[in-house]
Amino acid sequence: MTSIGGAEMVDWNLAVATATRLVRPGPEVTRDEARAIVAELRRHAKSSEEHVRAFTRMAPPGIAGGEYVAAEHDTPVLVVDRAGWVKANVAGFREVLRPLLDKMQERRSGPGGAMLGAVGGKVTGVELGMLLSFLASRVLGQYETFAPATRDLPAGSGGAGGGRLLLVAPNIVHVERELDVDPHDFRLWVCLHEETHRTQFTAVPWLRDHIEGEIQSFLSETEIDPGTLLERFREAAQSLTGNRPDDAEDGGRSLVELVQTPAQREILGRLTAVMSLLEGHADFVMDGVGPDVVASVAEIREKFQQRRAKGAGRLDQALRRLLGLDAKLRQYRDGERFVRAVVEDVGMDGFNRVWTSPNTLPTKAEIAKPADWVARVHRKTDS
User: Fold this and answer.
1) Rounded Cα distance, 305 and 135, in Å
2) Could you say which DSSP state residue 146 is in?
3) Which among 153, 173, 212, 383 would be 20 to 30 A from 164, CA to CA?
4) Which has the higher per-residue pLDDT, 98 or 2?
């Protein structure tokens, strides 16, 4: 645990306790309904594997001709409630942020370090917990790329690290009711998106290490004192209670944008491009598979897009900007546009050259201009 002057910089246990106390419980369901929903999500996650692999023509190593050769390439599926999502993510956050916290530890003698040491990790833990409570009610599912070892997972999650699929049951039920769509179709539709992410990382063995390397490079370049980081967490937490002034400085820039150095801007550009690719590819696949297996896919997509565009209230929108979630919404749109354009131009096999190596990933500029990626990658490999 990283500490300053003997005090924890982040009280992770308090962050979990705060988030689980503040997060709303989700829609009301009976015990039998909850069991049925969990069982259905697990079935859909399993059935999505075949649909996604057939459509994308991607399969993890050890799978040939549609048959498993080595079961060790499987990754677990974990259906959780909102509190479970918090617990599942905190251990991963601790590992990813460790280099940044270690770097901040070295600066403990400065004024920012003294401030954070005085305030203590408990304040930071509470404020991080508030942010996690916000996110825990909005995530439908995720492929947790940096899942920790088994000992850090919630009971019954399985797996030994290296990735797992999380499905947040109450959030899925909440959205399907809000949109007034067929719940069985919607659950399968969500599973198709998340299964695509699992396929991306299991079928492309170098992808996880590449992204982790980029993230660690980004964090190692961070030039921010502990006091400033604490203030950014406080601003985000204040947004939850409506206490952040409308005329606050920074013009609503996100936490990520506020800590950038020139080197980080280059790294962030590459990360933005690869995340746009992954999210857009998942959207493209869920809609491509959808017509064959999800009868009401057109209705679901239309209503879901309207929900994304509209967002929630003013407070929700302010916090989304601060956390950079608006940028994530653009990644879905821009990435899907890139994938669709490339597939239309060179077909699915031609698009799949994107997974050859880090050098064939699109740049941020190529996400906006798919023809430039086609010209670069296909001219190079075909010549």
Assistant:
1) 19
2) T
3) 173
4) 98
